Amino acid sequence: MGHLNLPPSKRNPRQWKLLDIVSAFFFALVLLFFLLVFTPLGDSLAASGRQALLLSTSDPKQRHRLVELLELGHHHQPIEACPADSVDHMPCEDPRRNSQLSREMNFYRERHCPLPDETPLCLIPPPLGYKIPVQWPESFHKIWHSNMPHNKIADRKGHQGWMKEEGPYFIFPGGGTMFPDGAASYIEKLGQYIPVTGGTLRTALDMGCGVASFGGSMLKEGILTLSFAPRDSHKAQIQFVLERGIPAFVLMLGTRRLPFPAFAFDLIHCSRCLIPFTAYNATYFVEVDRLLRPGGYLVISGPPVQWPKQDKEWTDLQAVARALCYELIAVDGNTAIWKKPDGDSCLPNQNEFGLELCDGSNDPSNAWYFKLKKCVTKTSSVNGEYAIGTIPKWPDRLTTAPSRALVMKNGIDLFEADTRRWARRVAYYKHTLNVKLGTPAIRNVMDMNAFFGGFAAALKSDPVWVMNVVPARKPLTLDVIYDRGLIGVYHDWCEPFSTYPRTYDLIHVAGIESLIKLPGSSKSRCNLVDLMVEIDRMLRPEGTVVIRDSPEVIEKVARIAHAVRWSATINDKEPESHGRENILVATKTFWQLTSSSS
Asked: Which stretches are transmembrane (predicted)?
């Protein structure tokens, strides 16, 4: 049968309708293409799309896409501000997250970090009414109340001289629970039994420090004290300490080694820190022993030392100290002072705690997410001379190559070259790049990739303290830093750092890209965007960032710097330096939440 050939006017109306729709859709696409490409509407839509992406990073795919856009510089808007209730946020010490974890040995109060994909990509805002901090040394005595308006400690501990509110300030009279008359008189009393003056002691650890009036007062004696406490019911105590310009770190002695090398501290101090030293077969005392330098001093004030209803605990504490051959120097009221033996512990011996020496497989300086050991570290397991009395006194020890530097090939030569290199570089930072080192504007400093601590050593005459961070996947040189009389911690920069927001005036990093790479590989473990957002979280408004790396990396860093609201310049390296390096110097702008964003 042949096909019936109808004239156009007789064709099926449905056929016309389909053709019209297809044609209209095609022409609409063409029109939209021209609008997007050749008119301002395209830019506007693209910007709003990116802004929507900035706000919705809960989806890992969207978050990865945002990171990619930021690294490429394909955006016009800065990263969004976090909500107003996040002004004091510490991602790895988040009570809402950690409260669901086990209470055994305070596991829930240790570091527990979210995965990057679980972390909103946003910038932590300052609190309402935030002011540029009071400068050192005035900050030792007073800080702005509006910068951390948390009155809990002042209300509960004001009668003990911790701190109190006075006008627009919190002021710090210098007291503590065990020294309500002031830390100065307490330290003077300690000086009757231990060499507080004269440079014999330099590095100290203050456990459960409160607002660190002890650590701050020890600075006057030339003793550099790193104070720590967990994030606990005394809201923001470490935040107060850092705002005062005193070295401090958020930390909990729980199930893991503290992130310090073996035999780091000349003095370890606990003033009512309430650490159960003899619990769990004296595991916590054993950890203190790992950290205390041979010939160093342990001071415990408060419970259980001659404390009512704690006779057994006090007897046990003396017993474990005897088992490790610590010499009881004095018991003065509720303060006990021991001296650690210079050489190997007198173990093995018969003791009620079952303490034994660690075997040869134990590296006592391995301390990043490392479970506490129930064995005692042998002094002879660490090569070198590091006992009190065998190392130079301060300040000579700063520039004397420690024997522990020999763990690296040509370690002594590397140490001396590193010291000279950073003296040149710091002079260039100050005199050519106009970094405000040496002025009252900079007190709290961090070196994110410290190696031997050469950068910090070059600042010895400046009114600063430096947190030297040794990346946990790099050579573990933190023991050399402590032997020099400096302080620091191990850390992995693919995780947030254990500090409050807005705690450093200057953050320095040499080789920033190496912090995110697998050792010996070009593959990244994390990304520069998250790392720079974390640097921004730690940095005070109007604070300074100094980053040095290859020109290609610095170019990428500069693009991200714009997104985190820094004002940045790229500079040439020092004329005397070798290799291909540029130096980015940036200032964090002082921005605040608007009423619409809060």
From this structure: 21-41
